[in-house]
Design goal:
single chain
Length: 104
């Protein structure tokens, strides 16, 4: 079924390219989340002046944000991937139904 991508597939919508794009977007999002967390972690140096509790609280908050953001990002990307997987499966069912009609 996965013979390769041709430009006519792009123009005719015969095959979906979004599942391949979703993987790239996922990795770009992970890099952005990581850079944001690192920026918040090291950019929050002014919190160290608030005492020991403020600095540790800031670090723990950034780590918690990072973990939740990565988890939510993964769930969102998996949902998109499932939607396109459903589309592919429906196409396979359609193709099989067409083959059954030819056999009769």
């Amino acid at each position: 079924m996965d013979e390769g991508f041709e430009f006519k597939d792009f123009l005719r919508f015969d095959r979906m390219i979004a599942p391949k794009v979703i993987r790239v977007v996922y990795w770009i999002g992970l890099v952005a989340i990581t850079l944001g967390a690192l920026g918040a972690l090291f950019g929050g140096g002014t919190m160290a002046g608030a005492g020991m509790g403020g600095g540790i609280g800031h670090v723990l908050g950034v780590l918690l944000f990072f973990a939740v953001a990565v988890l939510l990002w993964r769930i969102i990307m998996e949902a998109y991937y499932v939607f396109f997987g459903i589309y592919d499966r429906l196409g396979e069912i359609r193709d099989r139904m067409g083959e059954d009609d030819k056999d009769d």
